[in-house]
Amino acid sequence: MISVEEKLGVFRQYLLGKQREWGKKTINAAKDTSRELVESSEEKIAEEKRSVEERSYHVIYRDKNKIIAQGKNKAKADLLEERSRILEDFKETILKEAESYVGTDIYHGYLDSCLAKVPAILGDKKEIILYTREGDRDYVQKKSAELLSDYSCDFEALPAEHIGGLMVRDKDHRINCDFSVENLIADNYKLIGMRLNEVMEKQVG
């Protein structure tokens, strides 16, 4: 027959076993929970890292494109400014070159062609004023007598800012024909600019 002490011993062993089993389960559960928390944290960290990297990439890409666009705009503005400056210098060069032709046969041929256009422009306005350089007056008077024999011509000085050519007005000042050298260059300024740009493009290319 089993004594009370033995029964108590068996019961104690049973309780100890149950306690160990509960402790083991609790520890394992804690380990599982800890592992799950670590894995979840790692996933969250990785996700946040990806999010930060994506945001950083978008910011870098945006800033890069912005910087590139600003650079292109600056380069374009600088190029246009440089072309404008070169074109203006070129215009001054043309004016100086044109001034060297004043008084030559080529220049007189230009004056002849201008006088020949007057009838088509002024029509029946027979009383006109011719504005010329002082040095051109004798030549223009002679040529106008040939080419504008039906017209009554008065002669006045071309404004001092003009290097050459002539201007024609009817006496009522309703029609004004500007055949000055400056106006000739201005009329061809766009074409000159296009040609100059073509030359510059070839040099850059």
Keywords:
205 residues, alpha+beta, 73% helix
Structure explained in plain terms:
The protein is of the alpha+beta class and 205 residues long. Helix content is 73%, strand content 11%. The chain has five helices and four strands; from the N terminus they run ααβαβββαα. Strands 2-1-3-4 form a four-stranded mixed sheet. Helix 2 packs across helix 3.
Helix fraction, binned, reads over 70%
The largest sheet has its strands arranged as 2-1-3-4
Cα separation of the termini: 115 Å
Shape by Cα distribution: rod-shaped
Count every helix, treating DSSP H or I runs of 4 or more residues as helices: 5
Radius of gyration: 49 Å
User: Low-confidence stretches at least 5 residues in length (pLDDT < 50)?
Assistant: none
Per-chain topology:
Elements: H1 4-101, H2 105-122, E1 127-132, H3 137-147, E2 152-157, E3 165-170, E4 176-180, H4 181-187, H5 189-204
Parallel strand pairs: 1-2
Antiparallel strand pairs: 1-3, 3-4
Helix pairs in contact: 2-3
Task: Give a brief outline of the structure.
The protein has helices spanning 4-101, 105-122, 137-147, 181-187, 189-204, and strands at residues 127-132, 152-157, 165-170, 176-180. The chain is an alpha+beta fold and 205 residues long.
